[in-house]
Amino acid sequence: MKTTINTLETKSFDTTTLVSGIITGQLAGLIMAVVVMIVFTILGKGPLYPVQVIGSMALGESALQGTNLLAVVAGLILHQLGPSLLWGIVFGLIATKITITTMKDALIPGLVVGVISMVGPYILIPFLMNSFHGQDFWNQNVPMFWDWAAHLVFGASFVLYPWVKNKMIH
Question: Is 0.70 topped by the overall pTM?
Answer without folding.
Answer: yes
